[in-house]
Amino acid sequence: MTQDPDAGAHQALRLIGPAPRNWVLERPGIDHNVVLVGGGQTGCAFAWALRRAGIGKVSVIDAAPDEAHAGVWLHAARMNLLRTPKSLVGPELSLPALSFQAWYEARHGREAYAAIDRIRRVDWAAYLSWYKQFLGIEVRYGVRLDRIEPAGDHFRLHLNTGIETTRKIVLANGVGGTGGPYYPPAMEALPTAFRAHTADVIDFSALRGKTVAVVGAAASAFDAAGVALEAGAGTVHLYARRDTIASVPISRSRGFPGAYDNYRSLPDAVRWEQAVRFRRYGSTPTVDAITRAVAFPNFHLHLSSPWESARIEGGQIVAQAGGAEVRCDFAIAGTGYFVDPNARAELAGFADKIMLWRDRYDPPVDQLDDYLGAHPYLGEGHEYLEKTPGTAPYLGNIHVHNVAGFVSFGVPIGDVPSMKRDIPGVTARISRDLMLADIDRHAERMRADVAPDFGPELYAAALNRGGLPPRGSRA
Protein backbone atom coordinates (compact mmCIF):
# COMPACT_ATOMS: atom_id res chain seq x y z
CA MET A 1 0.00 0.00 0.00
CA THR A 2 1.46 3.35 -1.05
CA GLN A 3 1.90 5.81 1.80
CA ASP A 4 0.18 9.17 1.38
CA PRO A 5 2.95 11.81 1.26
CA ASP A 6 0.45 14.40 2.44
CA ALA A 7 -0.65 12.45 5.52
CA GLY A 8 1.26 14.77 7.86
CA ALA A 9 -0.22 17.88 6.27
CA HIS A 10 -3.73 16.44 6.46
CA GLN A 11 -3.17 15.58 10.11
CA ALA A 12 -1.95 19.10 10.88
CA LEU A 13 -5.04 20.65 9.31
CA ARG A 14 -7.22 18.25 11.27
CA LEU A 15 -5.55 19.18 14.54
CA ILE A 16 -5.88 22.94 14.10
CA GLY A 17 -9.53 22.53 13.21
CA PRO A 18 -11.58 24.22 10.51
CA ALA A 19 -11.01 27.84 9.60
CA PRO A 20 -13.35 30.29 11.36
CA ARG A 21 -16.48 31.32 9.56
CA ASN A 22 -16.39 34.66 7.79
CA TRP A 23 -17.09 37.28 10.47
CA VAL A 24 -16.85 40.36 8.23
CA LEU A 25 -20.22 42.02 7.84
CA GLU A 26 -21.78 42.32 4.42
CA ARG A 27 -21.96 45.68 2.72
CA PRO A 28 -24.37 46.24 -0.16
CA GLY A 29 -22.66 46.52 -3.53
CA ILE A 30 -19.28 45.23 -2.32
CA ASP A 31 -17.96 42.17 -4.15
CA HIS A 32 -14.90 41.44 -2.04
CA ASN A 33 -13.50 42.19 1.39
CA VAL A 34 -9.93 41.81 0.12
CA VAL A 35 -8.47 41.52 -3.36
CA LEU A 36 -4.95 40.10 -3.54
CA VAL A 37 -3.18 41.34 -6.66
CA GLY A 38 -0.75 38.59 -7.55
CA GLY A 39 -1.20 34.84 -7.34
CA GLY A 40 2.37 33.80 -6.67
CA GLN A 41 3.86 32.64 -3.38
CA THR A 42 2.88 35.82 -1.53
CA GLY A 43 -0.69 36.07 -2.77
CA CYS A 44 -1.39 32.42 -1.94
CA ALA A 45 0.19 32.74 1.52
CA PHE A 46 -1.99 35.79 2.20
CA ALA A 47 -5.08 33.89 1.05
CA TRP A 48 -4.30 31.16 3.58
CA ALA A 49 -3.56 33.63 6.40
CA LEU A 50 -6.77 35.60 5.79
CA ARG A 51 -8.80 32.40 5.72
CA ARG A 52 -7.41 31.39 9.11
CA ALA A 53 -8.26 34.87 10.41
CA GLY A 54 -11.91 34.32 9.51
CA ILE A 55 -11.89 36.90 6.73
CA GLY A 56 -14.02 35.74 3.83
CA LYS A 57 -14.80 37.10 0.37
CA VAL A 58 -11.11 37.17 -0.53
CA SER A 59 -10.18 37.05 -4.21
CA VAL A 60 -6.74 36.35 -5.70
CA ILE A 61 -6.13 37.69 -9.21
CA ASP A 62 -3.15 37.28 -11.50
CA ALA A 63 -2.56 38.70 -14.97
CA ALA A 64 -0.72 35.54 -16.07
CA PRO A 65 -2.77 33.20 -18.26
CA ASP A 66 -2.18 30.16 -16.04
CA GLU A 67 -0.21 28.81 -13.10
CA ALA A 68 2.84 27.96 -15.19
CA HIS A 69 3.29 31.62 -16.13
CA ALA A 70 2.41 33.14 -12.74
CA GLY A 71 5.14 34.24 -10.38
CA VAL A 72 8.74 34.05 -11.53
CA TRP A 73 9.95 30.55 -10.79
CA LEU A 74 9.32 28.91 -14.15
CA HIS A 75 10.33 31.77 -16.44
CA ALA A 76 11.99 34.97 -15.17
CA ALA A 77 13.89 33.24 -12.35
CA ARG A 78 16.89 31.44 -13.84
CA MET A 79 18.96 30.43 -10.84
CA ASN A 80 19.54 26.74 -10.24
CA LEU A 81 19.32 27.17 -6.46
CA LEU A 82 17.33 29.67 -4.41
CA ARG A 83 19.40 32.48 -2.95
CA THR A 84 17.86 32.19 0.52
CA PRO A 85 18.68 29.57 3.19
CA LYS A 86 16.45 26.51 3.15
CA SER A 87 15.65 26.97 6.85
CA LEU A 88 13.71 30.23 6.51
CA VAL A 89 10.00 30.20 7.37
CA GLY A 90 8.03 30.61 4.16
CA PRO A 91 4.35 30.43 3.23
CA GLU A 92 3.70 27.77 5.88
CA LEU A 93 3.81 30.62 8.43
CA SER A 94 3.01 28.96 11.78
CA LEU A 95 2.19 25.47 10.49
CA PRO A 96 5.41 23.47 9.91
CA ALA A 97 3.53 20.60 8.24
CA LEU A 98 2.94 22.94 5.28
CA SER A 99 6.62 23.88 4.96
CA PHE A 100 8.93 23.07 2.09
CA GLN A 101 10.93 20.83 4.42
CA ALA A 102 7.87 18.76 5.36
CA TRP A 103 6.78 18.55 1.72
CA TYR A 104 10.25 17.56 0.50
CA GLU A 105 10.92 15.02 3.25
CA ALA A 106 7.53 13.38 2.64
CA ARG A 107 8.60 12.73 -0.95
CA HIS A 108 12.35 12.19 -0.71
CA GLY A 109 13.15 11.44 2.93
CA ARG A 110 14.90 13.25 5.74
CA GLU A 111 18.38 12.33 4.57
CA ALA A 112 17.69 13.83 1.15
CA TYR A 113 16.61 17.13 2.70
CA ALA A 114 19.61 17.19 5.03
CA ALA A 115 21.88 16.68 2.02
CA ILE A 116 20.77 19.78 0.13
CA ASP A 117 22.43 23.10 0.88
CA ARG A 118 19.80 25.30 -0.74
CA ILE A 119 16.53 24.59 -2.49
CA ARG A 120 16.45 23.90 -6.21
CA ARG A 121 14.30 26.44 -8.04
CA VAL A 122 12.23 23.78 -9.81
CA ASP A 123 11.56 22.05 -6.49
CA TRP A 124 10.40 25.34 -4.99
CA ALA A 125 8.03 25.86 -7.91
CA ALA A 126 6.63 22.34 -7.46
CA TYR A 127 6.17 22.96 -3.74
CA LEU A 128 4.30 26.22 -4.34
CA SER A 129 2.01 24.48 -6.81
CA TRP A 130 1.29 21.78 -4.22
CA TYR A 131 0.71 24.39 -1.50
CA LYS A 132 -1.91 26.18 -3.60
CA GLN A 133 -3.70 23.01 -4.62
CA PHE A 134 -3.52 21.31 -1.22
CA LEU A 135 -5.06 24.31 0.54
CA GLY A 136 -7.63 24.83 -2.19
CA ILE A 137 -6.54 28.39 -2.96
CA GLU A 138 -8.28 29.62 -6.08
CA VAL A 139 -6.36 32.04 -8.27
CA ARG A 140 -8.22 33.86 -11.04
CA TYR A 141 -5.67 33.75 -13.85
CA GLY A 142 -5.87 36.07 -16.82
CA VAL A 143 -7.30 38.89 -14.68
CA ARG A 144 -5.29 42.11 -14.93
CA LEU A 145 -5.70 45.17 -12.72
CA ASP A 146 -5.73 48.27 -14.93
CA ARG A 147 -6.85 50.97 -12.52
CA ILE A 148 -7.81 51.46 -8.88
CA GLU A 149 -10.61 53.96 -8.43
CA PRO A 150 -11.32 55.17 -4.88
CA ALA A 151 -15.07 55.21 -4.22
CA GLY A 152 -15.70 56.43 -0.69
CA ASP A 153 -15.29 53.54 1.72
CA HIS A 154 -14.25 51.06 -0.96
CA PHE A 155 -12.55 50.77 -4.35
CA ARG A 156 -13.76 50.13 -7.85
CA LEU A 157 -11.24 47.90 -9.57
CA HIS A 158 -11.05 48.33 -13.31
CA LEU A 159 -10.02 44.89 -14.54
CA ASN A 160 -9.60 43.63 -18.06
CA THR A 161 -12.61 41.43 -17.29
CA GLY A 162 -14.85 44.20 -15.94
CA ILE A 163 -15.35 46.31 -12.81
CA GLU A 164 -15.41 44.80 -9.31
CA THR A 165 -15.53 46.38 -5.87
CA THR A 166 -13.45 45.69 -2.78
CA ARG A 167 -12.79 47.15 0.66
CA LYS A 168 -9.11 46.21 0.87
CA ILE A 169 -6.30 45.67 -1.64
CA VAL A 170 -2.99 43.88 -1.13
CA LEU A 171 -0.41 44.54 -3.85
CA ALA A 172 1.46 41.23 -3.85
CA ASN A 173 2.60 41.74 -7.43
CA GLY A 174 6.32 41.17 -7.22
CA VAL A 175 9.39 43.13 -8.22
CA GLY A 176 7.59 45.41 -10.66
CA GLY A 177 4.60 46.05 -8.42
CA THR A 178 5.31 49.70 -7.64
CA GLY A 179 7.62 50.53 -10.51
CA GLY A 180 9.15 48.41 -13.23
CA PRO A 181 12.32 46.97 -14.76
CA TYR A 182 15.19 49.45 -14.85
CA TYR A 183 17.25 49.97 -18.00
CA PRO A 184 20.44 52.02 -18.04
CA PRO A 185 19.88 55.12 -20.23
CA ALA A 186 22.27 53.75 -22.86
CA MET A 187 20.08 50.68 -23.34
CA GLU A 188 16.69 52.42 -23.29
CA ALA A 189 17.19 53.85 -26.76
CA LEU A 190 17.83 50.45 -28.33
CA PRO A 191 15.03 48.82 -30.33
CA THR A 192 13.25 46.12 -28.34
CA ALA A 193 14.32 43.50 -30.87
CA PHE A 194 17.90 43.99 -29.67
CA ARG A 195 17.42 44.06 -25.91
CA ALA A 196 15.59 42.47 -23.00
CA HIS A 197 15.48 42.70 -19.23
CA THR A 198 16.00 39.74 -16.94
CA ALA A 199 12.37 40.26 -15.89
CA ASP A 200 11.28 39.33 -19.42
CA VAL A 201 10.63 35.93 -20.92
CA ILE A 202 13.69 35.51 -23.14
CA ASP A 203 14.07 32.99 -25.96
CA PHE A 204 17.63 31.95 -25.19
CA SER A 205 17.60 29.39 -27.98
CA ALA A 206 17.49 32.30 -30.45
CA LEU A 207 20.84 33.47 -29.07
CA ARG A 208 22.67 30.32 -30.10
CA GLY A 209 25.96 31.27 -31.76
CA LYS A 210 25.37 34.97 -31.08
CA THR A 211 27.46 37.50 -29.17
CA VAL A 212 25.48 38.47 -26.08
CA ALA A 213 26.10 41.35 -23.69
CA VAL A 214 24.77 41.26 -20.14
CA VAL A 215 24.75 44.60 -18.36
CA GLY A 216 24.80 44.34 -14.57
CA ALA A 217 26.58 42.15 -12.05
CA ALA A 218 24.00 41.05 -9.48
CA ALA A 219 22.57 37.54 -9.28
CA SER A 220 20.01 37.90 -12.08
CA ALA A 221 22.71 39.11 -14.48
CA PHE A 222 24.98 36.13 -13.79
CA ASP A 223 21.98 33.79 -14.01
CA ALA A 224 21.07 35.18 -17.44
CA ALA A 225 24.66 34.84 -18.59
CA GLY A 226 24.72 31.23 -17.41
CA VAL A 227 21.50 30.33 -19.23
CA ALA A 228 22.69 32.02 -22.44
CA LEU A 229 25.94 30.06 -22.33
CA GLU A 230 24.14 26.80 -21.62
CA ALA A 231 21.83 27.53 -24.58
CA GLY A 232 24.81 27.77 -26.91
CA ALA A 233 25.55 31.49 -27.13
CA GLY A 234 28.77 32.08 -29.09
CA THR A 235 30.21 34.55 -26.59
CA VAL A 236 28.79 36.25 -23.49
CA HIS A 237 30.28 39.46 -22.12
CA LEU A 238 29.14 40.70 -18.70
CA TYR A 239 29.67 44.39 -17.98
CA ALA A 240 29.87 45.62 -14.37
CA ARG A 241 30.04 49.28 -13.40
CA ARG A 242 31.99 48.57 -10.19
CA ASP A 243 35.67 47.70 -10.08
CA THR A 244 34.87 44.43 -8.29
CA ILE A 245 31.87 42.12 -7.95
CA ALA A 246 29.82 42.86 -4.83
CA SER A 247 30.63 40.10 -2.36
CA VAL A 248 29.66 41.45 1.08
CA PRO A 249 26.07 40.51 2.10
CA ILE A 250 25.89 43.58 4.28
CA SER A 251 22.26 43.12 5.34
CA ARG A 252 23.29 40.10 7.44
CA SER A 253 24.49 42.54 10.07
CA ARG A 254 20.84 43.29 10.91
CA GLY A 255 19.51 39.79 10.62
CA PHE A 256 19.10 39.23 14.37
CA PRO A 257 15.53 39.01 15.77
CA GLY A 258 15.58 42.39 17.51
CA ALA A 259 16.24 44.22 14.25
CA TYR A 260 14.08 41.95 12.08
CA ASP A 261 11.04 41.87 14.35
CA ASN A 262 11.05 45.56 15.16
CA TYR A 263 12.37 47.09 11.95
CA ARG A 264 9.31 49.22 11.21
CA SER A 265 9.62 50.81 14.68
CA LEU A 266 13.23 51.86 14.19
CA PRO A 267 13.90 55.59 13.71
CA ASP A 268 13.75 56.85 10.13
CA ALA A 269 17.42 57.80 10.27
CA VAL A 270 18.43 54.23 11.12
CA ARG A 271 16.29 52.65 8.40
CA TRP A 272 17.49 55.12 5.79
CA GLU A 273 21.13 54.59 6.74
CA GLN A 274 20.67 50.83 6.41
CA ALA A 275 19.11 51.20 2.96
CA VAL A 276 21.94 53.47 1.81
CA ARG A 277 24.48 51.05 3.24
CA PHE A 278 22.96 48.18 1.24
CA ARG A 279 22.98 50.26 -1.94
CA ARG A 280 26.63 51.17 -1.53
CA TYR A 281 27.81 47.64 -0.87
CA GLY A 282 25.70 46.31 -3.72
CA SER A 283 23.52 43.29 -4.30
CA THR A 284 25.64 40.16 -4.18
CA PRO A 285 25.36 37.31 -6.67
CA THR A 286 25.58 33.81 -5.25
CA VAL A 287 28.73 31.73 -5.56
CA ASP A 288 26.99 29.16 -7.76
CA ALA A 289 25.67 31.91 -10.08
CA ILE A 290 29.22 33.14 -10.68
CA THR A 291 30.81 29.71 -11.06
CA ARG A 292 28.04 28.68 -13.47
CA ALA A 293 29.09 31.42 -15.90
CA VAL A 294 32.84 31.45 -15.25
CA ALA A 295 33.04 27.74 -16.06
CA PHE A 296 32.55 28.60 -19.75
CA PRO A 297 35.71 29.69 -21.63
CA ASN A 298 33.56 31.93 -23.86
CA PHE A 299 32.40 34.00 -20.89
CA HIS A 300 34.15 37.35 -20.43
CA LEU A 301 33.84 39.65 -17.43
CA HIS A 302 34.41 43.41 -17.78
CA LEU A 303 34.80 45.44 -14.57
CA SER A 304 34.57 49.23 -14.34
CA SER A 305 32.65 49.11 -17.62
CA PRO A 306 29.25 50.80 -17.41
CA TRP A 307 27.49 51.27 -20.74
CA GLU A 308 27.80 54.92 -21.71
CA SER A 309 26.06 54.87 -25.09
CA ALA A 310 24.63 52.42 -27.61
CA ARG A 311 23.34 52.45 -31.17
CA ILE A 312 22.46 50.01 -33.94
CA GLU A 313 24.94 49.73 -36.81
CA GLY A 314 24.96 47.06 -39.50
CA GLY A 315 22.44 44.92 -37.64
CA GLN A 316 24.49 44.91 -34.45
CA ILE A 317 24.62 46.88 -31.21
CA VAL A 318 27.61 49.18 -31.02
CA ALA A 319 28.15 50.51 -27.51
CA GLN A 320 30.75 52.37 -25.50
CA ALA A 321 31.56 50.71 -22.17
CA GLY A 322 34.41 51.72 -19.91
CA GLY A 323 36.07 53.63 -22.72
CA ALA A 324 36.03 50.71 -25.15
CA GLU A 325 33.82 49.88 -28.10
CA VAL A 326 31.43 46.97 -27.69
CA ARG A 327 29.82 45.05 -30.55
CA CYS A 328 27.15 42.44 -29.87
CA ASP A 329 24.00 40.91 -31.33
CA PHE A 330 21.79 41.16 -28.26
CA ALA A 331 21.90 42.83 -24.84
CA ILE A 332 20.28 41.75 -21.58
CA ALA A 333 19.83 44.19 -18.70
CA GLY A 334 20.32 42.60 -15.31
CA THR A 335 20.06 45.97 -13.63
CA GLY A 336 17.18 45.51 -11.24
CA TYR A 337 14.05 47.58 -10.85
CA PHE A 338 13.00 51.13 -10.17
CA VAL A 339 10.36 52.14 -7.63
CA ASP A 340 7.98 54.97 -8.46
CA PRO A 341 4.21 54.83 -7.82
CA ASN A 342 3.75 57.46 -10.54
CA ALA A 343 4.89 54.93 -13.13
CA ARG A 344 2.07 52.49 -12.37
CA ALA A 345 -1.11 52.85 -14.43
CA GLU A 346 -3.26 51.29 -11.73
CA LEU A 347 -2.17 54.00 -9.26
CA ALA A 348 -2.33 56.91 -11.71
CA GLY A 349 -5.37 58.59 -10.19
CA PHE A 350 -3.74 59.16 -6.82
CA ALA A 351 -0.01 58.38 -7.01
CA ASP A 352 0.85 62.00 -6.31
CA LYS A 353 -0.96 61.73 -2.96
CA ILE A 354 1.19 58.83 -1.69
CA MET A 355 3.83 59.76 0.87
CA LEU A 356 7.32 58.86 -0.32
CA TRP A 357 10.46 58.65 1.74
CA ARG A 358 11.69 61.92 0.25
CA ASP A 359 8.52 63.57 1.59
CA ARG A 360 9.08 62.24 5.09
CA TYR A 361 12.82 62.19 5.70
CA ASP A 362 15.57 64.67 4.88
CA PRO A 363 18.84 62.67 4.94
CA PRO A 364 22.31 64.05 5.57
CA VAL A 365 24.08 65.28 2.44
CA ASP A 366 26.38 62.24 2.38
CA GLN A 367 23.35 59.91 2.35
CA LEU A 368 21.32 61.51 -0.45
CA ASP A 369 19.81 58.89 -2.76
CA ASP A 370 17.06 59.71 -5.26
CA TYR A 371 16.33 56.03 -5.90
CA LEU A 372 15.57 55.33 -2.24
CA GLY A 373 13.69 58.60 -1.89
CA ALA A 374 11.13 57.45 -4.47
CA HIS A 375 10.09 54.49 -2.32
CA PRO A 376 6.74 54.85 -0.56
CA TYR A 377 6.91 55.49 3.17
CA LEU A 378 4.67 52.70 4.43
CA GLY A 379 2.70 52.42 7.65
CA GLU A 380 2.90 49.60 10.16
CA GLY A 381 0.43 47.49 8.17
CA HIS A 382 2.35 48.11 4.92
CA GLU A 383 -0.33 50.59 3.96
CA TYR A 384 0.21 53.69 1.86
CA LEU A 385 0.19 56.93 3.86
CA GLU A 386 -1.05 60.32 2.74
CA LYS A 387 1.46 62.92 1.67
CA THR A 388 -0.97 65.56 2.96
CA PRO A 389 -3.16 64.35 5.85
CA GLY A 390 -6.85 64.32 5.07
CA THR A 391 -6.54 64.40 1.28
CA ALA A 392 -6.63 60.65 0.56
CA PRO A 393 -7.71 58.58 3.59
CA TYR A 394 -8.48 55.61 1.32
CA LEU A 395 -4.74 55.02 0.89
CA GLY A 396 -4.75 53.22 4.24
CA ASN A 397 -6.74 50.41 2.63
CA ILE A 398 -4.05 49.62 0.05
CA HIS A 399 -1.38 47.36 1.54
CA VAL A 400 1.93 47.05 -0.29
CA HIS A 401 3.66 43.70 -0.15
CA ASN A 402 6.20 44.05 -2.94
CA VAL A 403 9.73 45.39 -3.29
CA ALA A 404 8.57 48.97 -2.71
CA GLY A 405 8.55 48.15 1.01
CA PHE A 406 12.32 47.66 1.18
CA VAL A 407 13.28 50.99 2.78
CA SER A 408 10.40 50.84 5.28
CA PHE A 409 10.86 47.20 6.31
CA GLY A 410 14.49 46.36 5.56
CA VAL A 411 14.18 43.13 3.56
CA PRO A 412 13.05 42.33 -0.01
CA ILE A 413 9.31 42.39 0.64
CA GLY A 414 7.56 39.51 -1.12
CA ASP A 415 10.59 37.24 -0.92
CA VAL A 416 10.78 34.43 1.63
CA PRO A 417 12.65 36.51 4.28
CA SER A 418 9.64 38.83 4.63
CA MET A 419 6.95 36.19 5.05
CA LYS A 420 7.32 35.17 8.70
CA ARG A 421 6.98 38.73 9.98
CA ASP A 422 4.98 40.66 7.44
CA ILE A 423 2.19 38.37 6.27
CA PRO A 424 0.84 37.88 9.83
CA GLY A 425 1.34 41.59 10.52
CA VAL A 426 -0.56 42.76 7.46
CA THR A 427 -3.28 40.17 8.04
CA ALA A 428 -3.74 41.41 11.60
CA ARG A 429 -3.97 44.98 10.37
CA ILE A 430 -6.57 44.08 7.75
CA SER A 431 -8.58 42.27 10.41
CA ARG A 432 -8.41 45.23 12.77
CA ASP A 433 -9.39 47.73 10.09
CA LEU A 434 -12.37 45.68 8.92
CA MET A 435 -13.53 45.25 12.50
CA LEU A 436 -13.24 48.92 13.45
CA ALA A 437 -14.79 50.11 10.19
CA ASP A 438 -18.06 48.45 11.26
CA ILE A 439 -17.61 48.81 15.02
CA ASP A 440 -21.16 50.04 15.69
CA ARG A 441 -22.68 47.04 13.98
CA HIS A 442 -20.19 44.67 15.59
CA ALA A 443 -20.85 46.23 19.01
CA GLU A 444 -24.56 45.62 18.50
CA ARG A 445 -23.75 42.09 17.47
CA MET A 446 -21.71 41.60 20.65
CA ARG A 447 -24.62 42.92 22.77
CA ALA A 448 -26.97 40.31 21.35
CA ASP A 449 -28.73 37.89 23.69
CA VAL A 450 -27.03 34.55 24.02
CA ALA A 451 -29.01 31.40 24.88
CA PRO A 452 -27.79 29.62 28.03
CA ASP A 453 -25.97 26.34 27.62
CA PHE A 454 -27.99 24.80 30.47
CA GLY A 455 -30.70 25.56 33.00
CA PRO A 456 -30.75 25.28 36.84
CA GLU A 457 -32.15 21.78 36.60
CA LEU A 458 -28.66 20.64 35.65
CA TYR A 459 -27.40 21.27 39.19
CA ALA A 460 -30.67 21.29 41.18
CA ALA A 461 -30.14 17.79 42.58
CA ALA A 462 -26.92 18.90 44.25
CA LEU A 463 -28.43 21.84 46.11
CA ASN A 464 -28.22 21.40 49.93
CA ARG A 465 -26.92 17.89 49.45
CA GLY A 466 -25.83 16.39 52.79
CA GLY A 467 -28.24 18.38 54.97
CA LEU A 468 -26.11 21.47 55.31
CA PRO A 469 -28.17 24.52 56.22
CA PRO A 470 -28.82 27.00 53.47
CA ARG A 471 -26.27 29.81 53.26
CA GLY A 472 -27.18 32.72 55.55
CA SER A 473 -29.36 30.65 57.91
CA ARG A 474 -28.74 30.34 61.69
CA ALA A 475 -28.08 26.94 63.20
Residue-averaged pLDDT, rounded?
94
> How many individual β-strands?
17
- What class, by secondary structure content? alpha/beta
The CATH topology annotation of the largest domain reads as FAD/NAD(P)-binding domain
Q: Based on CA inertia axes, which overall geometry fits? A: globular
End-to-end C-alpha gap: 74 Å
Low-confidence stretches: none
Q: How many domains, as an integer?
A: 2
Range of strand content: 15-25%
Helix content: 25-40%
**Mind telling me the CATH superfamily name of the largest domain?**
FAD/NAD(P)-binding domain
**CATH level 1 class label of the largest domain:** Alpha Beta
Main pleated-sheet profile? 7 strands, mixed
Report on the structure:
By secondary structure, the chain is an alpha/beta fold. The protein has 2 domains: 7-179 and 338-440, FAD/NAD(P)-binding domain; 183-247 and 284-335, FAD/NAD(P)-binding domain, CATH 3.50.50. It is 29% helix and 18% strand. It has 16 helices and 17 strands. The chain has helices spanning 7-16, 41-52, 100-108, 110-115, 121-134, 185-188, 219-230, 257-261, 268-281, 287-294, 357-360, 370-373, 406-409, 416-437, 439-446, 457-460; strands at 32-37, 58-62, 139-141, 145-151, 154-159, 162-171, 179-181, 195-197, 211-215, 235-239, 299-302, 307-313, 316-321, 324-328, 330-333, 337-339, 398-400. The strands form 4 sheets. Strands 1, 2, 3, 4, 5, 6 and 17 form a 7-stranded mixed sheet that branches. Strands 8-15-9-10-11 form a 5-stranded parallel sheet, with helices on one face. Strands 12-13-14 form a 3-stranded antiparallel sheet. The protein is globular. The N and C termini lie far apart (74 Å).
